[in-house]
Design a protein that fits this description.
The complex is a heterodimer of chains A (about 220) and B (about 350).
Chain A (H helix, E strand, L loop, with lengths): L5 H6 L2 H27 L3 H13 L2 H15 L6 H25 L9 H28 L3 H30 L7 H35 L4
Helix pairs in contact in A: 2-3, 2-4, 2-5, 2-6, 3-5, 4-5, 5-8, 6-7, 6-8, 7-8
Chain B lengths: L1 H25 L5 H5 L5 H18 L4 H9 L9 H20 L6 H19 L11 H32 L7 H29 L1 H12 L5 H33 L5 H20 L6 H15 L6 H31 L4
Helix pairs in contact in B: 1-5, 1-9, 1-10, 3-8, 3-10, 4-9, 5-6, 5-13, 6-13, 7-11, 7-12, 8-11, 9-10, 11-12
The chains are: A mainly alpha (about 220), B mainly alpha (about 350).
Amino acid sequence: MKEITEKELKKLNIDELTHLFVDNINEQNLKLIEGIEFLVEEKFDEFTKNLNYVIETNTEVQIKKTFEAKIFKSKLMFSKADRLKLFTKINDIKGIGEFIANKMLLYKVVFPDNEFKTQLISVLKSLKSISNGLTEAIKAIGSDLSKAQNICEDVKDERRKMRKEEWQLLNRLYNYDMDYLSRTFLYLKELVEDIMMLADHIKSFSEYIQFLATKYLIFD
Amino acid sequence: MAVEIISIVVVVLIVLAIALAFSIGANDETLSTLVGAGVIKFKVALLIGGIAVGVGMFSFSFAFVAKTVGADLLGEAVTYTEFMLLAVLISSILWLVIGSFAGIPLSSTHSLVGSIFGVVIVYALTHGDVNPETAFNWVKLNNIILSWFLSPLFGLIITYVLFKILAKFYLSKLKGLNQIESSEKRFKWLLLIGIIFAEIWVGANSGEAVGILYGLLDGGTLNLEQYIFFAFICGVFSCLGIYIAARYVVRNLASQMMDSRPSESLITQISSALILMIATLLSLPISHSHVIVFCILGMSVAQRKEVDYKGLGKMAIYWVLTFPVAAILAGLIYFGFHLFGLG
């Protein structure tokens, strides 16, 4: 993502700062997902590089600081608190991503079989899709709340689909005949659960956007 | 001795009337939507609201609601005595204080008219030369009581209709949060005008304070110059009531209204101001708080929001109770005066 100076940041309005922030966080999310894909392919160098990127990147901190300074002095009236909450929720995604990246870097796992890998790739594809969907929904809040509401409905549908696959993955893991090393079992179990955690946060975020749409839109 | 007591009572009545004007201002929460929307600075809002109420109270003190309370409610054969007015004021204040301690929102208008009713009936019963049937202007009283039921109802209907029209032709066309924000920014300036309009009619319809003074004018205790002077003082004190004492209520309510939309506040305030204006021009003292509660209810119904019918029912019971309780209380106080030969 292109570096942006402090001076340039100060010129942006609340809406533009939110868009920039969510783009930044989504980019890190996609890097995290790509990193896990590298792990599946046993490309450990790329995996480590991607996850370290998620941990070390802090360009969003300056955006957050600028946003917070602006929102307190902002002339916005009734949407001020909601916009701040929206921003905080985006920031929570960064926290979750960083937590997952740190945990994943503790060990280099080798996957048990191709079925597990294929199903995990499918879950990651859905995760990528809901992360992009959420970003699009957040960007639509300012211009079209109905559009944001519809995107969130799609995100929730995709999350429902993912959940089934996640349980299948865990079921597979618990029922392998081979007695795996406890570290491998623990790592894979936590990987699936962490993906679930991130996906659940995205889902609850989507519900919050739908709440905003209901709150602000007036129908005749 | 008797003359001295009467003079003291007159002074007490004027002081209480002025205190009542101050408390009318102090209890006025109309400005909270304006402050909540952050349209103008807090102190400027208090000053503008205070001046508007004061102007409304003084400008309409020569007839309308003040005349109804101070003269027209009485039958042809009856004029207020100083002790009748004192009983009315004590009873009204006492019932309102009891209501405040019990946490019950009561109407000062209902309390005052109820007290007048109680005092006049006891006056007629204790004075053989006065017929209780003609002691009261029953037509006026019927109109006032009818307006107490109709004004909240019309408040609800007007708010509902105004919101539906605005929603259909404008608000529903706004798509994103940015568009909604800019639209509401424009509404907040309209809200400022709406609130000034509303405050003028709040002052104009608050006939309790100047009504007592009008009673003294009608009974010949005050001359016209004195009445104008004290009515002006009442206007000033209602303004001071808002500026000095209402700030706590306004600030508290405003902090809960940060999320409220100026467009919605404008509709409720305009609706209630229209009702108050019509009632004032018809010389009918009505309860501002009852009207505004029903305007907010109309807004909730129009937006299909949940309505607290239980709370509303509880409030309605106290509304209905205010008139008879204030009447009995005032009647007893006046009867006490009569027993001591003061009536």
